[in-house]
Each structure stands twice: as C-alpha cells, then as structure tokens.
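Record format v2
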Amino acid sequence: MSEAIIKLSGVKKSYGDHAVLKGIDMQVNRGDIYGLVGRNGAGKTTIFKMILGLSEMNEGDVSIAGSTNRRELLKNRNKVGFMVGNKFYSYLNAKENLQYYATIKGLSDKEAKPEIERVLELVGLAGVKQKFKNFSLGMQQRLGIANALLGNPEVLILDEPTNGLDPQGIADIRHMVRRFNEEFGMTVIVSSHILGELEHTADRFGIINEGVVVKEFTQEDLMEKQSSIEIAVDDLERAKKALNDSGVKIVREIQEKSTLEDFYFRLVGGNKDE
Amino acid sequence: MSKLIKADLRRILRKNILYIFTVLLAIAAIATKNGKTPGQQIDAMEAMMDGLGIILISIPVLLCVYGDEFRSGSMQIAIGRGVSRTKIIVAKFLDCVILSLVSALLLSVIIFIKDALTGLPISEKQSVMLFVYALLIVVKACGYFAISAFFMMMSFSIAGGLMIDLFMLMFFDRILKAIQYKLKIGLYDISLSGLTEDAYRAISAGSFPGMLIVAIVIIVVVIGATAFTFNRKELEL
C-alpha cells in the first residue's frame, strides 16, 4: 500500500454563495509525480492554498506527511517546497532572494551558502548576477523552482510552472521535474490546464472539475485503455501487405501529422526530453 | 521569530530608501535652528523630533517593512513553509521597533554633537531627558505603526497604511486636542501622544511612568487584533 504524503479528505471551500471546492478527496503518494488537471477556475490553485495554509477550508481535513493535528500540519509544511507565482523582491538578485527564504526556513548562513549554490545550479541560474526585476519570465520560473527546492523538501508543488514559457522552457521544466523525482526521490504535484504537457510529465493524475476530483488514475490506466499501438516503419506499403498476408485485418488507418512540439524541435534543434 | 526578523532586516538594509531618509533625518537635525539658552535648545530639538523627525523615521520604516512585503507577496511563501501568521505579524512589528530605535539613536547622536558644538551649557540631566524623549517618540511611532499595520494587513494597501500613519503623525493630536478643549473630554490624554507626554513628565519628575505601561498595553492590544483578523484572512498565491 502506497504511503500518502498529502491527503485531502472532504475539503470544502466557498466564497459567499459560490462553492469552489465541493468535497475534495485526493491522495498523493510518496514518490508520485501527480498531475492535477482541470480547466482554469476549476479549483486547482484553491487546493494548493488549502495545502499551504493560505486559505481556511470550511470543512474537511488536510494532512501532510501523516500529520494528525493542526500543530503537526504547521510543522510538516516545512517539508513542502512550492512554486506558485513568483514571490521575490525585485531589488535583490537571485542569491539574495534565496538567502532571505533560506533564513526563514531556518538554514544558518553556513548551511545556506552551499544550498543556494546547489539549487541555482540545478535550475541553471548559477552565476546569474542581475536583480530579479530584470529577469525574463523563464528565469523567474526557474528561480521559483530553486526557491521551492531549498532545504531539499519531500514534496514539491508547482502551480502552472510552464505558463508563459517558450517550448524550450517548457521542455526544460519537464526535464527538471522528472529529474527531481528520479534523482532526489521528491514527490511532485504539478498543475496545468494543458493536458498534453501533464501527460508527458506526471505518472499519476487527478482530474478536478467543478470543485470535485472526478477521477484519479495512473499512466498505466491510460495505457490499458489503448486498443492500438503506433509503430514506425520504413516501408508502409510492405508493412500493410505483411499484415494482410498474415491474416491481420487493418480496421483503421490513421495518418498522423507531427505535433507542433516535434516539428519545432526538429526545426530549431534541442530536445523536448532534455 | 528571530530568523524572520534576521531575514527581514538583512533585505531591508539593501534598500536605498532607508539611507536616503537617514540622510534627510540628519539634515533636518542639523538644519534645526539652535536655541539661545540650553532650555530653548532642548525645546527646539524636541520639537524637531516630534515633528519632521518622527515623520522621516516612520515613512521609510513602513515602506521597507510592509511595502515590499505586499509587492513581492513573500509573506505567502513564509506561511506556506509553516511560519505562523501571528509570528509574521509580531516579527514585522519588531522590525519596525528595531529600525525606528536605530534611527532614534542615530538622531540622538547627531543632536548631542550639534548641542556640544553650540557651546551652550547643557546639563547632563537635560541630555539624558532629551534621549528619553527620543525613546518616547519611538514608542509613539511604534503605536502608529501598529495601527497602520492593522489596516495594511487587512487591505494589503501600503498607500492606505502610509496615509493613516501620516494622518496620525500630522493631524491626529491636533484633532484630539481640539475635541478635548471644546468638549472637555480627555481624548488627547488617553492617546499615544498624551500617554507618552505624561510618561515624560513622570520620568522628568523622578516618578514611575505608569502611563507608558498603558501606551504599551494599547500597542499590544492593536497587534493582537491584527493577528486575530490576519489569521482569518484569505491570501492569494
């Protein structure tokens, strides 16, 4: 049985008469890359706000790393790193901003220095000296992730991390997420309204619609629902003839065009998996 | 709590506005017209502290401690990392206390040097009382910080908080004094200005400044109210 690291049970939240969350039951297991899927306004960010304590729920329960009461919940929030929006001081550079949050997190100056170097290296911002106000959107997102990584948290929450990024930036974030999960064993919760993007990144999914999680499933569940496979061959006509000759009936033939992403990377170089 | 204050003060010390206002404060002290007697000199310096001085101390402190916080939204990260909201409120207030104390100390040093350069025979007791006055100004400024912070933490509007602070610094005492004079209701006496003035008189006379305790209790109650309401506030990501 998988160990739940984040668990929401019957979480309800309303703003006046408008119910945003109507009883969320959701479980993220240790080691998951959990993709939270939903349209804009479906309640994804509100779920994160509940987990992070930025919003009081009307009903229900949130547990982080097995917390059973409010005190434990508050303490265990230190095990969560999150990147939601980009909350930084414009007049400080990357290191100075991270120093601020490292101190809040309780790292001494001696511990903070190598830790800041480490996370900046991980997100590709090592050596960047300019102030935050001069950062591009991609750099802001990277610094947001670096900040979330401070202190090597057990859970990483990324709310729409690819918003506004170019294809290379999106591919970089995807690669980073997988690396944090595989190399550091981090549990990652990532939200997006771009389904194709999450499909490439996550291994478990929760679909939220109108304030309820309507379905939780895995990559394997998606595979099982497939009734066809895709094979690349060098000679399509010969392959079709071979299938016919061996008595296999071709029910449907789909000629797929390249995805825009594939096409882009073919043209400009680079790799979407790196 | 100490790590919050340390992190805050470290980033605030990188703000240029803090140093610009410190220079303006020094200029204001130096430019204040000297008195002809020790008594007049002390009165002039006290008037400067309670006028332009407290304003030049308060504006940068509020802007640096709260203004950037709302613009950057970094408070949400601290809360998301498990820092309690009450701790944040108290830490921010203590930031204000430390920064205004340092400013008042600096101002006192400049005034002492200026007084010495006048060649007036200012007594040791007069110098000590001038320093006490500076400390009481800090108490008053912190009271106004607490009240402004209440509104700022509710509205996340630094402009609103700054306006409330400036209103209290510039007009509040006059309004209360006018009400007290016209209606014979002792409103000014129970204001932070009235209470700190009473405390100054008590210290001057060598007695216990009981009203200072009342002023501190008022400040603590305001901070408590801020923490209570902020704990229920919905925060955006």
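The two ends of chain B are 23 Å apart (CA to CA).
Chain B has a mean pLDDT of 87.
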